Amino acid sequence: AQSVTQLDSQVPVFEEAPVELRCNYSSSVSVYLFWYVQYPNQGLQLLLKYLSGSTLVKGINGFEAEFNKSQTSFHLRKPSVHISDTAEYFCAVSKNTNAGKSTFGDGTTLTVKP
Amino acid sequence: ETGVTQSPTHLIKTRGQQVTLRCSSQSGHNTVSWYQQALGQGPQFIFQYYREEENGRGNFPPRFSGLQFPNYSSELNVNALELDDSALYLCASSSGQGDRNEQFFGPGTRLTVL
Hints:
Chain A has 114 residues and is mostly beta strands. Chain A has strands at 2-6, 10-14, 19-21, 23-27, 32-38, 44-50, 56-58, 64-68, 73-78, 87-94, 103-104, 108-113. Chain B is built from no helices and eleven strands. Chain B is globular.
């Protein structure tokens, strides 16, 4: 079985400030890790994924995440946020490289204030 | 290239009724996954269809059932609706296995059970 814990349900931050959204996971088998963004009244969009190789992965919209196997974490970061980054962010794990049959965390609401 | 579409957008049903939700997968995709996203929570995996066969199921009762058609579109059927079935239902399509693939989400169907 696998589970995902997103440690912060809400993260308020000012525009142009850095942000980190935290994600921890547990699994009895090797998994792949994903971050998604969900804007109001829309489906989920893939931000980035870790499958193998370098533990620092870069995604769209200037986001990056670091896989830490010893701490079973996959935190999402952005050095400078914009108002348009306000959205819900989900961390997910899957035994499949294409993220099929994923287990999701409960999400973190990122609110960027002017 | 047409993305993943879902219908209807919104739906209101009463307890005990039955509902059918529809999903058209992205062109070239043969795999569809369905997720239930309750308010304030992350998506939960319901089941996946690959080439018209069920290919994995989450922790949902048998009254949640599905179909995939030869054109790879899919339906989610829920019988004997309960109040707790109120949620956003998301479908995601992908082109099978392979680490260059990802699942693409539709905008969802919001189901309200009264």
